Amino acid sequence: SKLTEGSVTWKTPSNIALVKYWGKQDPQTPKNTSISFTLDACFTLTTLDYKLKNRQSGETGFNFEIYFEGEKKDDFKPKINKFFERIAQYVPFLNEYDFVIKSRNSFPHSSGIASSASGMSALALCIVSIEKQLNPEMKDEYFNKKASFLARLGSGSACRSIEGELIVWGNHSIIEGSSNLFGVKFPYKIHKNFKNYHDTILLVDEGEKKVSSTVGHKLMHNHPFAKQRFSQANDNISKITETLQNGDLKQFIAIVESEALSLHAMMMTSNPYFILMKPNTLKIINKIWEFRAKTNSNICFTLDAGANVHILFPENEKESVNNFIINELIQFCQENHYICDRIGFGAKQL
Ligand code: PMV
């Protein structure tokens, strides 16, 4: 029986890496293992309408329309077409349907928050949902793996946006079941100190990213410190795996902040080189360090490939840290913009 038409909707979170993915090889596999917190408030909502093509039309390519926040977006087409080309061999029904993709983000467009992780994972989940309807015997475990596998081919970090709360991507000897091809749930018990962990995102620079991650990953080819960086990241996976189980927040801070600065150090020492932090990024980092010295708080920061600062802190410090953020850090944000997020539990079908 052939599925003729229908519609699926997924709500898929963004994620923030604790140990960073920076450097890849074909076909979109990472040079080192990474681990991320799945987020909650930052998400993409995507509806995929599908309708079996009229066979007589003789068309062979992919046929789809894209609407983003209610507006038709033809400029998104090449990226999605490339994604479809990459995944077609794993979802051969893709060119048998006409699609309409309707997508919106919970966070402001061009806020400097990467939307590729939540966006690509949402589309991947919609596609696997269609596969599941064509093949109802598909097991739940396979479903998530397949979605992560496809999302990875859209954007590497997107493979970490299917499940929660902590996801590992990339082969690593101490992470059972880990793979370069899809993300897996952190396989050990997470210490209660990390329950409901907060991530407040300070929007220092809401402009478009100066260096796309495609360009960024390429900068790790022939990078003078590449080998050391990949082995540092893999060592940090071992360390943070212990930390996440024993709840040692001081050790957590040391790993996470070092990872953020190492990511930026790679960009500063590549050819060509970039500084993606802004003066306000550094002001915020220094304020965080002062606050920690004064109060023994467990607040820490991490960074993506941009100027915005993610502030991580445990649930039991939320009042004091929120006061600190509002009184002392918001002034360094563009138009006082920030987003309160926390560790989340993964994508949901609506
Ligand atoms: O998924 P990509 O190709 O956009 O790469 C993301 C890279 C970082 O966000 C900088 C780090 C990470 O692990 O998410």
UniProtKB/TrEMBL annotation:
Query: Which ranges carry the Diphosphomevalonate decarboxylase-like N-terminal domain?
Result: 13-171
Tell me yes or no: is Lyase among this UniProt entry's keywords: yes
Any one Gene Ontology MF annotation carried by this entry is: carboxy-lyase activity
UniProt keyword list? ATP-binding, Lipid biosynthesis, Lipid metabolism, Lyase, Nucleotide-binding
The Mvd1 C-terminal domain covers which part of the protein?
Answer: 201-327
Q: What Pfam family is a match for this entry?
A: MVD-like_N
Q: Which domain of life is it from?
A: Bacteria
Which biological processes are named by the entry's GO terms?
isoprenoid biosynthetic process
> Is Lipid metabolism included in the keywords of this UniProt record?
yes
Q: What's the protein name?
A: Diphosphomevalonate decarboxylase
